[in-house]
């Protein structure tokens, strides 16, 4: 009995039933929960095709809630699952929904890429007649995203196709949508023509819900154009259709009964109209009296209008002046926005392009330091390494600010131990504190809950930047970090952070500008202490992103105090202690064969040398086309793929390799930019990503993960 009960309550059918029930009652969060349970069941029981379908279902739930990022994540997971099974029409729908989601986000180029993939898969499946349905969904997505021009163009592509009984419904819907678009633009003749064409195609399919929708649109069209008689007539037909559809659902009457019902309704309407005519005849006598009163009222209003005439002229003149000023302000606003966008794009491009030569500098420095340099050379190489690391930090901070400004930063909600996080930061900065002879202390309120839910990465960036600044600008002094429980309510807490130093302080007239990019209070401070001037900018932007506000109190010669408050949710479940990753060993890498696909000669030399230092056999190809052909006839233990290559790029080459080789690990090499991200690169079939310039230990560790 128990096993039977367990089987019934832990199955795909059971979770699907619960999810559908919650969707019908619009309890979307619970629908997501049960769909996720179904996905977990598929993963645990290794059911790939059902896993693909359930992941697609979860993507649709998020899409219908307009949560497009979550929807895209699940649609991509669904596609990855479908890659392991025989393709179905659901995979076509998943590709088409990805296109619709990117359309909703305004990224039409990416959207079109997935629409084309969906269409091509339809051809492969031999279901060409369904391509118009996908085209119609794409057009609706454009319309929902307010891109009426692209929507109209796509609807026209559908109605221009040759007539076919299987297309009548789609054509009728397309004419209906074109009628709605033309109504918005007040193109009355065109709108009415499209609605009538929609009705004519509807007659061929006898689709009553579709006809009800079209008649309602025509009624609203006539109402908009103040033709109330026709508006009422079509509205009445719409309600008749709705009543009949309802009766069909309840009693399942046939079409002939509907005609009888319609005739009876028409008879009732005739009697009703005759009654209304009698009432109108009675009211006609009163209309003359009303007309006389109306004329008198109009005369009085005319006199009042003359009295207000001069005031209207003055007001119109003022309005003209205001409109001109508004135009000037809009032009100035647009110029400022263009300048800001140009600055962001310039900084992103420059920082991205600097990574390739910087990779050469850091890589050659690392190789020279490993090559047992002379003592006289060691000092210069250490200085070169410091300069390379400094420049890398500078570039990363520029990209961080650009990502925040372009709203490409997502906030995480994960469990973490606040005390452990702060003590780890303290340990990482002990050397800097000792170097400046500072007493560095952290005080944490014992009443703060052990585990919280929030974004520990961004919190670390904020605290690390503030403490680093305090230690850098303080010598022979004290730096105290105070963390207190400010407020607790139910499952939420507000934590107060205070970073106090006894350093050089900040002048009052500079206390606002220090939060601006590339600002450090004065040129003298910059020359003496160095730094990029971006740390406090990142702190301010990240604090605001997390819902807080950074405050500063400072006095020259006495020190500075930075404070902020952040809200967190309490996690009552104990955190699992993360086991430390075992460091890689050289034996893992010995005698492995790696294909390096890289067009830059210097990067070829550096990467080859770093690999050969670990006894790895390295072969180099400088373009994607030759690499694909070589891999068809020769096997390697691992592939290092540069993303930006001449000819086909690294992502396209990876896709072509995955057509015949699903197992060989492929690691992307990229000077990752503002518009690139790890998930995007992994979606093309890559297994991991290494960012230029390489950090040697990270470089070797990432490769070693694939050699057990």
Task: Describe the protein's architecture and organization.
Mean pLDDT is 80; it is low at 1-7, 518-523 and 525-532. The chain has 26 helices and 12 strands. The chain is of the alpha/beta class. It starts with a helix and ends with a helix. Strands 1, 2, 3, 4, 5, 6 and 7 form a 7-stranded mixed β-sheet that branches. The protein has a 5-stranded parallel β-sheet with strand order 9-8-10-11-12. 29% of the residues are buried. Helix 5 runs antiparallel to helix 6 and helix 7 (108-125) runs antiparallel to helix 8 (131-144).
Count of DSSP helices? 26
Taking pLDDT < 50 over at least 5 consecutive residues as the criterion, the unreliable ranges are 1-7, 518-523, 525-532
Percentage of residues in helical conformation: 55-70%
Total beta-strand segments: 12
Intertermini distance = 45 Å
Q: Residue-averaged pLDDT, rounded? A: 80
| Rg | 35 Å
| Strand-residue proportion | 5-15%
How would a crystallographer describe the biggest sheet? Answer: 7 strands, mixed
Shape: globular
Q: What structural class do the secondary elements suggest?
A: alpha/beta
State the main characteristics:
708 residues, alpha/beta, seven-stranded mixed sheet, five-stranded parallel sheet, 12 strands, disordered N terminus
